[in-house]
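Example record

The entry below shows one chain as it appears in the dataset: sequence first, then C-alpha cells.
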Amino acid sequence: TRNLLSRVRCGKFIFTSSSSVYAQNDGSIVTEQSAAEPSSPTSQVLRETEQLLLGSKVPAVILRVTGIYGPGRGFLFQHYLRGEARIHGDGGRFLNMIHRDDVVGAMLAAIDRGRAGEIYNVTDDEPATERDFFAWLAKQLQRELPPRVSEGELISRKRGLTSKRVSNQKLRRELHYELIYPSFREGYAVEIARLHGRAS
C-alpha cells in the first residue's frame, strides 16, 4: 500500500478491509464507530493499512467486508459439505456474511457514492448464530447437524475468535445499496441449487 500511495493518482481509492478488525466477542452490535482493536496479526495489518490510507492525501474509502461466500467460497459451508463442521458450545456465536455478488455491488456503490475518508461495513441484513446457520443448512440438504464441541476449540481458529453483529445501516443509508441477497438464506439457496445443478 505504501508503494501504491507513492505512485497512485486516482479519483478514489477503494480498499477492501475486513470486519475482523472488530475484536468484540460479546454479541454486541458493531458499527463503523465501534472500537477496531484487532488481536490477530493479519487483522492488525489490515487496521494499520486503513489508518495509513485515511491519513494520506489519497481519497480513500474503506470497506470492512464480512465473511464472503458464493461460488467456490464459504468456509463453514464447505466444511459442512465435507462433514468437518462443528457447532461450538451452545452455537450462540454470531456469524456475519455477505455474498460475493453483493461485495461487488457495494464496491461499485462506493466508487459512485462513497465519500473519501469514510468507512463502510459490507455485510448482509441478518447476523446469524452458528446454531441457526447449520440448522438451516441441515434442513435444506436433509443432513444431520454437525456435532457439538467445546467452545475452547475456537481458540486456535482465527474465524472463531469473535462474536458480534455487524451493522450495514451506513452502507444502506449513505451508499443507498440494496442487497441482492439480504440474508444467508437467499444467498445459500442459490449455492445449494448450483450444487445440485439447478442454478441458472
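Notes for this example: The radius of gyration is 18 Å. The first strand starts at residue 13 and ends at 18.
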